[in-house]
Specification:
The chain is mainly alpha-helical and 281 residues long. The chain has one domain (61-277). Helix content is 67%, strand content 1%. It is built from eleven helices and two strands. The protein has helices at 26-29, 45-64, 70-79, 82-89, 92-96, 100-125, 143-171, 176-199, 207-216, 218-242, 252-277, and strands spanning 12-13, 20-21. A two-stranded antiparallel sheet has the order 1-2.
Length: 281
């Protein structure tokens, strides 16, 4: 599979929005500027520490409150219908006789979620601190937009996850083979998502691109993957509760909340280490 070449045209289409974005866009590629204290007003050590402490505290709070705007809350409620459907879809019985209603909801809502997460990933990579308004002029919601995101993202997702998922469905148990397989897939998956988002193509999943990119930011990337593992484990526990008979409704929205926070974490990681990845070189 040939290595995907970065686009050299003046404009590049985002996976999620299809909006032309310059590969040298200052908001996407420039490092944050440091504030400079006036020379006439020297600051004390306590004064110098205060702004950074406040900035760090505000950054952490913004990170946790990422889905807490109008668009984020609305989508939390919409997508809270999905966790029980996902749990049912992991059984052969669901696919043998799912009925048109549950199957339609599963496919439509999953497509919508995939598109929304891709849009949020692009927004976070450009510095957005809250979930995007998916029906704005810059990111109109349409069937074509859903299918475009699906055609770009789903093949890479399937390539990595279809085998361990099929293994679990067939064996109906967790063993050491599944654990190792899932851990390996989970390790490369975040970088695959970032790569296909940048190159706007499933070719971004090419190991020739993904593996060197991981090596170039190995230390921070391992920290990212560890955080993803922890959040995914928490989401998995909540999804199990939401899918039990008479499912726990209160556990459904937090599953989607965690997915949105993970997406924001991934976008912020790219924004911070994009120069070391050198995809635009």
């Amino acid at each position: 599979m040939p290595m995907p070449q970065p686009r050299v045209a003046p404009e590049r289409a985002s996976v999620a929005t299809g909006t032309p974005v310059s590969p040298l866009d200052e908001a996407l590629f420039d490092l944050p500027r440091k504030s400079v204290q006036p020379a006439a007003q020297p600051s004390t050590p306590a004064d110098e520490a205060a702004p950074s402490d406040k900035e760090a505290s505000r950054s952490a709070l913004d990170f946790l409150l990422y889905p807490m705007n109008v668009s984020g809350v609305i989508h939390l409620l919409i997508f809270s219908l999905l966790p029980p459907l996902w749990m049912q879809a992991m059984s052969l019985q669901f696919w043998m006789s799912p009925g048109i209603g549950p199957l339609f909801c599963l496919v439509l809502l999953t497509l919508y979620l995939l598109h929304y997460l891709a849009t949020c990933l692009s927004g976070s990579a450009q510095g957005e601190t809250r979930t995007v308004d998916i029906n704005s002029a810059s990111s109109p919601l349409s069937v074509d937009a859903l299918l475009s995101t699906f055609q770009t993202v789903f093949p890479a997702v399937a390539l990595i996850w279809i085998a361990p998922i099929a293994y679990f469905v067939i064996r109906e148990r967790v063993d050491w083979i599944l654990v190792i397989w899932t851990a390996a897939a989970g390790f490369v998956f975040p970088m695959v998502l970032l790569s296909i988002n940048y190159f706007d193509s499933v070719r971004g999943a090419n190991p020739v691109v993904v593996l060197p990119s991981i090596v170039s930011v190995l230390g921070p990337y391992c920290g990212l993957v560890l955080a993803m593992y922890v959040l995914t484990g928490l989401a998995g526990g909540l999804m199990y509760l939401s899918g039990r008979p008479g499912g726990v409704w209160v556990a459904r929205a937090p599953v989607i909340y965690i997915l949105l926070v993970q997406t924001h974490l991934l976008g912020r990681f790219y924004r911070r280490y994009q120069e070391r990845l050198k995809w635009g070189a």
